[in-house]
Amino acid sequence: xxxxxxxxxxxxxxxxxxxxxxxxxxxxxxxxxxxxxxxxxxxxxxxxxxxxxxxxxxxxxxxxxxxxxxxxxxxxxxxxxxxxxxxxxxxxxxxxxxxxxxxxxxxxxxxxxxxxxxxxxxxxxxxxxxxxxxxxxxxxxxxxxxxxxxxxxxxxxxxxxxxxxxxxxxxxxxxxxxxxxxxxxxxxxxxxxxxxxxxxxxxxxxxxxxxxxxxxxxxxxxxxxxxxxxxxxxxxxxxxxxxxxxxxxxxxxxxxxxxxxxxxxxxxxxxxxxxxxxxxxxxxxxxxxxxxxxxxxxxxxxxxxxxxxxxxxx
Length: 314
What we know:
Mean pLDDT: 86
Oligomer: single chain
Radius of gyration: 20 Å
Number of strands: 0
Order of helices and strands: HHHHHHHHHHHHHHHH
Strand content: under 5%
């Protein structure tokens, strides 16, 4: 039992091959590239909401992983049935509820109302120089009737998430492991140096970027492997020399898995830049109506599959 408890902080429930091969969204006629874009936008929305709620990155990361888990597999949620904005809000609300910083439904809904009033409700509204795009307060004001309706939706989606995840809300993140591994490798001294500081920052940057990866790295690999890959890539970028031997094997990470993760982490910047260009002139769909509009626009380019399952939201 003690061994199982110790391992729980080093592992997460991973998605199966069947879950990764298909999804409810794809069965409902959403192309893979659009599915990846919508998931990416939802993760960014969750990140921005967490920042405005002044939640620590640990809770925000756990919420994004919960958000991603909900849409995985043919038995998961669908972007045509469960709006991204609603699942994002419910994931953040649920994760904060079981943490040391619970948030009230009104606080969560007020933040999402504000973010969704923006043309691009990602991280930009959280930046100091984003004042030129601020919306008028009347646009994101929640009346009592709207609040009660949104609160009911929030609690309903929360229950759907719990049911889809079989009430498994455990999420272990690799950030603390990365710090421990850096100290073990002797590249993070007790007195910080410019080089060690740069190495730690790049390591954390890669771990945070991996949360947004279309390859769902947090759903396919355990925290130790993610930590090792982030350290390996950060050391290569900062010119930090690590031990000559295959040190990653000490942390129970195989060379093949390390290589895959390094490529995945290294490709995130280019993919994020392409997404920014793709959605430069319009907002990525975050509501059911926006998803349907986008599908209608690309319907001529991506034909619907015969016998696909398309349902209407209640």
